[in-house]
Amino acid sequence: MLRVSRLLTAIIAWTTAIVLGGCSQGKPEDFYRSGIIYCSESNPINFNPQLDTSGTTSDASSHQIYGRLLDFNPDSGRIEASLANSWQVSEDGLTYEFQLRKGVTFHTTDYFTPTRTFNADDVIFSIDRWRLPSHPYHNVSGGRYAYFESLGIADNIQEVARLNSYRVRIKLINRDSSFLANLATDFSVILSEEYAKQLMQKGVPERIDHYPVGTGPFKFQSYRKDHYIRFKRHENYWRDTPRSERLIYDITPKSSLRLAKLITGECDAIAFPSQAEVEVIRQRDQLELAEKPGLNIGFWAFNTQKSPFNNPDVRRALAFAIDKNTLLETVYFDSAVRAKTLLPPASWAYQRDADDTAYNPVLARKLLNDAGVPEGFRMTIWAMPVERAYNPNAAKMAELMQRYLAEVGIKADIISYDWTTFRRHLRDGAHDSVLIGWSADSGDPDNFYRPLLSCGAIPSGTNRAMWCNSNYDRLINAALKTENIEQRKRIYQQVNRLLYEQLPLVPLAHAYRYQAYRSGLSGMSINPYGGINFAGVEKKL
Amino acid sequence: MINALSRYTILFTLTLLVLALLSFSLIYMFPGDPLINLTGLVPQNDIQREALIKQFKLDQPYPIQFYHYLQQLFSGNWGYSFISGESLRDEIGIAMPATFELSTYAMVIAVIIGVPVGCYAGLRSYTASDYAINTASIFSYSFPVFWLALIFILFFSLDAGMVPLSGRISLLFEVPNKTGFILIDILLAEDINHSLALKDAIKHLILPTITIGLISTAAMIRITRRSVIDVVNSPYITAARSRGLSKRQIFMRHILRNALLPILPLMAIQVTTLITNAMIVETLFSWPGIGNWLINAINQRDYPALRIGMLAVSTMVITLTILIDFFNRLIDPSREKFERGTI
């Protein structure tokens, strides 16, 4: 008995000594200030945004780990120099020449030590990886480059040539007025060619997407699924050194828990506060809320390759059966704009007088009868399991729609899986209809029309309606052939008309974008043209 | 003694075998492909599928399949989570100690507070202070644990901001997972400010431990009180009193020892409640333990994980129960006459 208590005393004394003695090792506040904790909403699929259009993946990698040739200015939306110092476009709009920045270093990590700085080889490797099916790295990690496939960029590039170490020329086959904008999106990241070569020699090329190396402000340290992602400051970042020594993503799928952690200070910033929580954040003094109209659209897409949804009249009937305004009030709490077309009001091609469907259950039932859809017809509504700016609560929305559809004699079953499985099944076309959406990566209207509904976007999995219409493809291609804004606007108006007639998807809402963070964080801003960026963020309190 | 030991061993083995059989049958009872439910691997094509079926002997009769399943379990091939693709053994190896740690601290609190208070109440039985203690313990014992956890979070975390509400330690600390016990891992970790990390971890520990501990303490008080009352009323205490022993002597020598003996088997029953409570509380405090892990597996329909998770949790509970029971027999020879092992 005595011996036990002596041992206990020893342990207590030892622990106390450590607890008290440690106080000399610098102020605790300094330690807590040295890192930013961001509560993110879900697990990234990998750390290469080329391979995945999901916002979770690009938020975790695009602006943290990587750099791009060009960037969007977050305020004006204009394209500005990044890893490319300057660029020239030829008269015919087919040849682009980029002058690359010198002295840009790649990350030095536990698994890679670069021997050279960024040069033309890295640019060529990064583009050729998604562009050339014969490239040794093309089929690594699945070989699907959803964003580029959905836009059909790869087929339009004739060559990517090295002029010298710091000069690259890209030749296009057809004129594309959105080409530069595409190079500035979250997905056009620059990978390290030297690292790729090393991995290939070791026979583990797929590591490039899971142990990433880039030129961005933070370098990857470790990742544990459902728990965290750790980043460290890239000391030799070519812009201003990142303010924060560490960056940690605390993966917290529940929106209410993220808010709670923000209140207790366990997170410094959180992803996607739900619209219902926005008021709570506004009322708290120590929390800040930034708000901007978002470049996004939430919609209800029908699987147009399945009967009876291949019939435009059925799709129209279903669109008439639901009341968009109620959805806007209950799901978005009025922090969204009603969507008429794919484009949000912030886009320059927004059409104010576009046609829109109205709530009319009687007409809906009549159309369904005419199309031979019986009473009691069963269909599925797939509701995505994660919150997105464009749809903060798909499950709730699906329940409301279930009730609206019951009024016109349709029984709707709501289906949901975990996010990865959900998207895999969607790509296979297992759904009848789905509630999902799109956040644009550039302000260009082509960034909405092409990935969402063009034929080329079906295999890449961004065309959730699985809809292919040659007339539509012809129109959106024609819109890229001209630099004349008014002419492009007119073409997009024709496209809107066609979409209203065909209705492969029902546009629902363009939501505002929110960014919630603690007041102690300075330098946080919403980048409307893509993912979050922590390079200039600093913790003050 | 050897007789008892062998009886316990047989009991333990048989129970585990039944559990293994149950978890094996889950492969077929869960919806979907038995191959995926067993391995967590999704075959990319028919050739691969055939090969996997051969490898896991799914084309053989059930008894052989089961035998092979047991072999796999013992050699540590528990399959892969088909959501995360991680080895289930590694995942459970991280999650289980976290639950164990939480339960241990709660148990320590329950013993440290529960036994003395229970003794006090038992010695002063049917007085005002005994009634007060008894009322309080019944009151706190009847709290639903998840409700209690939420109330604590609301008051202490969200309103007062005194303690954090999720996880084991602020993610700013990099604590490598060695033993799975966060406090020990912190002491073993290098390159971190130990005192700061310990403070942080203890802050994270307070609420979940108190939540579980409170209910276990209440149970402990009631068990101890009952036991002490029984002993106090027994003839040998009266005899000791009549011999003129001091109160202190009577308590230390006669009451405490004899009262603690019947507490141990009752504690064994409490262990199950304790672990169940810990698993519920984990999900509320985002504590990365086995309960949280199982809830995630259910949400994501991760059948391989559910199968092995159920086996792991029940094995842990049964091992603990049998161990405590066996230990109890070791120190309490009066139980020698009941030679059957019990759970």
TL;DR?
Helices cover 33% and strands 21% of the residues of chain A.
CATH architecture of the domain at 88-300 in chain B: Orthogonal Bundle
CATH class of the largest domain in chain A: Alpha Beta
Distance separating the two termini of chain A: 49 Å
Fourth CATH level, the homologous superfamily of the largest domain in chain A:
Dipeptide-binding Protein, Domain 3
Number of helices of chain B: 13
User: What pattern of helices and strands is seen along the backbone of chain B?
Assistant: HHHHHHHHHHHHH
CATH topology of the domain at 88-300 in chain B: MetI-like fold
What's the count of strands of chain A?
Answer: 20
Structural class designation of chain A: alpha+beta
Overall, the morphology of chain B is globular
**Assembly state (oligomeric):** heterodimer
Which descriptor suits the 3D outline of chain A? globular
Largest Cβ-defined interface: A-B, 35 and 28 residues
* Fourth-tier CATH superfamily name of the domain at 88-300 in chain B: MetI-like
Straight-line N-to-C gap of chain B:
18 Å
* Helix-residue proportion of chain B: over 70%
Unreliable stretches of chain B, pLDDT < 50, 5 or more residues? none
Q: Tell me about the largest β-sheet of chain A.
A: 12 strands, mixed
In CATH's first tier, which class of the domain at 88-300 in chain B applies?
Answer: Mainly Alpha
Radius of gyration of chain B, whole Å: 24 Å
